[in-house]
Structures are given as structure tokens and as C-alpha cells.
Design goal:
Layout lengths: L24 H13 L12 E5 L2 E4 L4 E4 L2 H4 L8 H13 L11 H13 L9 E6 L2 H16 L3 E5 L8 H6 L17 E4 L4 H4 L3 H15 L5 E6 L15 H12 L2 E5 L23 E4 L10 E6 H4 L15 H16 L2 H22 L3 E7 L2 E6 L9 H13 L2 E2 L1 E3 L5 E4 L7 H17 L3
Parallel strand pairs: 3-13, 5-6, 5-7, 7-8, 8-9
Antiparallel strand pairs: 1-2, 2-3, 4-10, 9-10, 11-12, 12-15, 14-15
Helix pairs in contact: 3-11, 4-11, 8-9, 12-14, 13-14
Bound molecules: pyridoxal-5'-phosphate.
Pyridoxal-5'-phosphate binds next to helix 5.
Length: 452
């Protein structure tokens, strides 16, 4: 792992340490204040208040060192407070923090666009890609849809079951899950068509069969000629880290091409090197028309990219795209450092190391714990699905108990799936084999303590 393992003496030890109950007394004190001034709609999975963090370790206000296997949901992909990211962002903070790119531009925005274009599978001089930068994943989705509508002149937006795209008005209408994301916030946005996905553990279909089902559904409900775009997560994130069957995504992309529908890969969670390719769609052999980035792009600073074929991106009128903070210079400088770290430290190979080391650990647990129905994922985006033994019925209470037991032991885990049927793992690409071993040992204990 080269430079990454050599940390300054002041760095946080990459080891778990539990010194109080979790949450500890100081966290509880802050939490009591929080409940008076922050509404419950802004929910925290584990109300442990964090003081500092480095690479895979969170240090809370009570001095506990917690192993972070979520990375703020796939954001700190190259680790918390990566030295190069901190240095680049600090330097940029001292130069200029804001001009508004649409007033007077700056180079880091252009550098980020160059990096994103370079990594789209299939991009070349003859197939150029261009990028608009915004602030959040939901904004990336919103703009992807806008751009596809402008290009096609059509209204329809196709999405998949188990999908998740954000919490703005448009994106909350695109999510599979009504509660809590859309319930009561209506009217929901129209012209959105949701089709069955590929979920091999449950549907038993081949990629070709699942794609035929998706396409037939969309042709019946929407009509291909009314569709501007199909928005798909190559690996569904909130929906359960669902990896589609082989051939599913290529068949959908082919159908989109034949019907003039813009194929949008929502890589907000799966992208930015986590899967073992900069864009996970590469691992499925598909060239997207538009690819969306956010979460992991800037090492924890807010930034989102909408990267698309030039002919699609060029349709919008000057001024039609953008926003005050979109492509903030500090976020852009951080993103450039993230790309440099991915290349310099060969982090795509690290993602594949994690796929094998973490994956082997999970498969060993599966032998011991019959509740683990499946281990799945790509790279450092892995999950287990927990079911009632001998069935494919979700066991959401078991999922919650396992996560609570792990938290008590200083390991931060997160559930996934519209039925709360799984536990997802989004470790830093620099997490050592030793630390992965500790996470697996804690998970083993937590599964046992939760009664699996
Ligand atoms: C998180 C997520 C979003 C929304 O991103 P925000 O930054 O929270 O707005 C969109 N799509 C996918 C796939 C996501 O995982």
C-alpha cells in the first residue's frame, strides 16, 4: 500500500478502541441539545458525535475509536482526511474559495472535467464527453434528466424497482421507496415509469430474461418513443447492493440505443473507483450516454458531476445549466487530488484486493451463519443479505440487531435494501487486511449475539 501506510505520529491509530458505552456520555449530551434544534426527519443512524477522523477510523467526542465501514455512505472512498486531499483543499482555500464558475472560471473545474471524461468507458477523441459540475447526487440526477429531455425533446423518465436517486422533488419521485422519501411531500413528479430490475437471488432470471421483462414493462407503460432517458444504478446502492445478472445492463443499453433513449448510469454510490473501475459500468461492459458522479468524488467535500456525450451535453443553451456553488473551487481541488491518489496508489487494484479479502471473510461467515443468504458486490462495495433460514424472506429485525451489536463493539455498519434485508460494506480503499480481519471478527460476534 506504499505511502498510505506511513502516517505521521499525530495520525489516528488505525485500530478499534472502545472506552465508553456507545454512544458515550458526551455524545448523549450533544444529542439532547440536537433534538431541541434539529428536526427528527434528519435522522442519524448512530448518534455518536465525531470529533476527528483519519482513513478508516472515526474518533468520537468520548474518545472511542470506531472502524468506519460506511465512509459516510461511500464518500470517503480513499479514506477520511487523506493527506493529499487535505493539502490540495487547504492550498485552494488560501487561493480562492468562490468566484462562480459561470461568472469568472478557474482551472480545477476544467481538470475535474478532463479526469471524468478520460475515465468514461469508451470515451475517445472521436467520442468526446463533457461535464457539468454541481453539488450533490440528487442535483446530478436532476441535471442528467434535464439534459436528456433537452436533447431528445421527450418527457419520460424510466427507472428501476429498488432504485434510489435522491431527496429533491424530482428524485424522490424516482425512488422505489415511497416512505420516507416521498410520502406526504406530493404531488409527485409525473412521467416517471418504474420497471422491474434484475435481482438474481430473488428472480432467478438470466440477464437476458430480466432485460426482456424490464423492456416489455417500459414499452407497455411508457412507450419507448416517449422516453427521454433510462436512469440506472449499475449496482443498486440503497436498494440492497444488488448486482444485476450478466448481460442485463448491456441489453438495456442496446435497447436504449435502438430507441433513441439516453442511457444514464447513476454512479453516485458505485462510482469513483469503489467498484474496482473508476465507473462501475465499465465492469459490465457498457458505454453510458451520461454518467453521474458525486459521493466519492472529492474526498468528503460536496461535488457532483454530470458527464455525457458531447452531442447530448451541447444541446443546452448558454446559462441553462449551472448553479451558484456548482463546481466549487475547493471541492474541485480536492477531486483532482482524489483522482491523482487513485492513479498514483493504484487504488483500483486496492478495490479488487478488498473485494477478495473482505469477500472471502464474508463467505467464511456465510458457512457459519445460515441467515446469510448471499454475499455480493464488486470491489469495496459489498453486502450480505440476511433472510429467515431456509427461506428468501427478509429478516429486517436481525439486520438491525447485528448493526446494534457491532456498534457496541466499535464497528459502524449500515443496512441496505427496501426491505432492510442487508448490511452493506463501504470500506476505505486503503483499509488494511488486518483491519478487515477485525471487522469480520466483530461481525461474527455480532451475528452470534443477535441470534443468527
Ligand atoms: C446518494 C445517492 C444519490 C443522492 O445523492 P445526494 O448527494 O444525497 O443528493 C443519488 N443516487 C444514488 C445512486 C445515490 O446513492
Amino acid at each position: 500500500m506504499s505511502e498510505a501506510t506511513q502516517q505521521p505520529e499525530t495520525a489516528i491509530p488505525q485500530e478499534r478502541l472502545v472506552v465508553t458505552e456507545i454512544p458515550g456520555p458526551r455524545s448523549k449530551e450533544i444529542h439532547a441539545r440536537r433534538t431541541r434544534v434539529v428536526p427528527p426527519g434528519v435522522h442519524s443512524v448512530l448518534p455518536v458525535y465525531i470529533d476527528r477522523a483519519h482513513d478508516s477510523i472515526l474518533v468520537d467526542v468520548d474518545g472511542n475509536r470506531i472502524i468506519d465501514v460506511c465512509g459516510g455512505i461511500g464518500v470517503t472512498t480513499i479514506g477520511h482526511t487523506d493527506d493529499a486531499v487535505v493539502a490540495a483543499a487547504t492550498d485552494q482555500l488560501n487561493r480562492v474559495t468562490h468566484t462562480l464558475f459561470t461568472m469568472t472560471p478557474y482551472e480545477p473545474y476544467v481538470q475535474v472535467a478532463e479526469y471524468l471524461a478520460k475515465h468514461v468507458p469508451g470515451s475517445s477523441e472521436d467520442a468526446p464527453y463533457k461535464t457539468l459540475l454541481m453539488n450533490s447526487g440528487a442535483e446530478a440526477v436532476e441535471n442528467g434528466v434535464k439534459i436528456a429531455r433537452k436533447y431528445t425533446g421527450r418527457p419520460g423518465v424510466a427507472v428501476l424497482e429498488h432504485g434510489y436517486h435522491g431527496r429533491t422533488m424530482l428524485t424522490s419521485s424516482m425512488n422505489h421507496k415511497g416512505a420516507p422519501y416521498a410520502l406526504g411531500y406530493g404531488p409527485r413528479v409525473g412521467d416517471i415509469y418504474r420497471a422491474p430490475n434484475s435481482y438474481p437471488l430473488h428472480d432467478g432470471l438470466t440477464g437476458a430474461e430480466a432485460a426482456a421483462r424490464t423492456i416489455a414493462h417500459l414499452e407497455k407503460t411508457a412507450g419507448a418513443a416517449d422516453l427521454a432517458c433510462l436512469v440506472v444504478e449499475p449496482i443498486q446502492g440503497e436498494g440492497g447492493f444488488i448486482v444485476p445478472a450478466d448481460g442485463y445492463l448491456p441489453a438495456l443499453a442496446e435497447w436504449c440505443r435502438e430507441n433513441g433513449i439516453v442511457f444514464i448510469a447513476d454512479e453516485v454510490q458505485a462510482g469513483m473507483a469503489r467498484s474496482g473501475a473508476v465507473f462501475s459500468i465499465e465492469r459490465f461492459g457498457v458505454q453510458p450516454d451520461i454518467v453521474l458522479s458525486a459521493k466519492g468524488i472529492a474526498g468528503g467535500l460536496p461535488l457532483a458531476g454530470i458527464t455525457g456525450r458531447a452531442e447530448i451535453m451541447d444541446k443546452s443553451l448558454p446559462g441553462g445549466l449551472g448553479g451558484t456553488f456548482g463546481g466549487n473551487p475547493v471541492s474541485c481541488a480536492a477531486a483532482v487530488a482524489v483522482f491523482e491518489q487513485i492513479e498514483k496508489n493504484n487504488l483500483l487494484a486496492e478495490a479488487k484486493r478488498i473485494e477478495s479479502v473482505f469477500g472471502d471473510g464474508l463467505r467464511a461467515l456465510q458457512e457459519k451463519h445460515p441467515a446469510i443468504a448471499e454475499v455480493r458486490g464488486r470491489g469495496a462495495m459489498l453486502a450480505i443479505e440476511l433472510t429467515k433460514p431456509g427461506t428468501l424472506e427478509a429478516d429486517p429485525e436481525l439486520v438491525d440487531r447485528v448493526i446494534a451489536e457491532a456498534a457496541q463493539r466499535g464497528v459502524l455498519l449500515l443496512s441496505t435494501g427496501i426491505y432492510n434485508q442487508g448490511i452493506r460494506f463501504l470500506p476505505s480503499l486503503k483499509m488494511s487486511d488486518a483491519l478487515i480481519g477485525d471487522v469480520i471478527a466483530v461481525l461474527d460476534e455480532a451475528l452470534t449475539a443477535a441470534g443468527s
